[in-house]
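Quick question: what would this complex look like in 3D?
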Amino acid sequence: MVGSGIRNLIGLLLIAPAGALVLGLFVYPLGLSLIGAFGPSVEGGYPAPFGRFRNALDLYADDVLFSVLVIGLSVGIIAVLTVIIAGYLTLGTSPLAVAVLRWLYRWPLFIPFIVAAQAMRGFLARNGLMNNTLVELGLLTPLSAQSFLDWRGIVITMVWKQLPFAVLLVAGAMAALDRSTIEAARNLGAGRVRCLIDIVLPQVRATFGVALVLSTVVMSGVLSVPLMISAHSPTMITAQMAFRINAHGDYGTANALGLISYLLTGAVAWFYLRQGLREKG
Amino acid sequence: MPRAVLRWLRGTLLALAIAAFALAIFGPLINLLLWAVAERWYFPHTLPLEYGFTFWERVFRPTGGAMQSLGLSVLVALATVVVCLAVATPAAYALARLSLPGRSLILLMFLLPQAFPDTPIYINIARAFYELQLNGTIAGVVLVHALHGLVYAVWIATAAFAAVDRELEDAAFNLGASRLGAFATVTLPLAAPGLAASAIFVFLESLDEFTGTFFVGAPDVTTLPLLMFRAAMEGNYQIASITALILLVPSISFMMVVERFLKPEVLARVGA
């Protein structure tokens, strides 16, 4: 098998440069962040190996909880809206409404988080277009209008930005389904909602799960949104990591917070994988 | 209730829901546009008191910094595309064509950066780059942008090569072409639209990147997102909004044409 040996060697050589880049730009810094999370804390005087975690939790336990709640709520809202929008795109009966919705939902797809955050800083402010529209519609009085630039603003920005991605994936998977089972259920008298929940959703579960896990990871790593929408404590731990570095040069506590964020997203991915294995097994 | 009334009610509810959704999607963007052309706007006025382009002049005049940042951002993005495609094209060809052992594992390795939250990774890249004196340099910023750029480049390019019909390559072999010759004259031109799509993804990823640049580039390398962030933090809504609008143009244009570049047969093979 000289031929395949040479082919493997050529393959390896072709992949090597890209592999080296991933090693240097991802595996190595990941290793640094993992190692850097353990050791004695600079502040608080806690000993190794968990001192940095104790210090991180002393200072930022509220922010960890805040991050979990904000991301959990955002993912929950994204999940519900994704089912509704992708479901309507697949099962909707009004061609006009389907076309309008298809055109509408993807606008934020490639808009960067930082631009989304700036747009929301205007839109959700006390005098922003959201409150002003509600006032014009008579649903709100000018005096009771309040700024949404707190945890609600972070959730709204995350959902606004990340929803098109989830809908794109899930609606794509739904469009690829065999229409005949759906038609059969419809002919047997199943309503559209029942059809969506009992027939369509179970078949796109894997894609739905991937979309939600990837969204969780992306939202857990975003720095610009908390910095721009609501940076005062409690805020997302990404903002506190940046603060530890820029104000204190304290990589230990920042890395401990980083490892906490890996653990949280890892837990979500693990939960999803286990669910998938259980269904297959 | 009679059927007609019920249908009317349903239609109205649907129209209302879509209108509310449209407001949620476009409201923030319209607000951004308003801020970009507002001369004066404060509580409790629903709309700006005065419109104009004074701030545009301030952004675009030579000392405003926007033109330099735009030029720098485009330069960095182009360099990132070159770096990513230069290493991803051979890797993608090997992954798509050479049936290597552990192929799916290698593909998974190229997806790994997508599975971890960014901020802690970027913090440690900046730390490593500090030792290498890459912090605050354009090369450092290009490399940090290449991290996620590479994920798109490898996966989309692999799908593009996999979508090229093998029989066409075999025909080239039969006519006496070498492997390299067949690659250059048959495979590469046929995969070109997919490679172009991956190039656009990498370009946009770099143009829009904030967090990595924040840690690696600051304070010397001010890309457009960093310029926007600084204006926003200084509380200058007009300047931040105008800069944000400049960033919006490529994002929205790409959203409009993405389907033309990513053909279904390529999309279907992403990760396959």
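Answer marked as accepted. Chain B has two domains: 3-52, 65-267.
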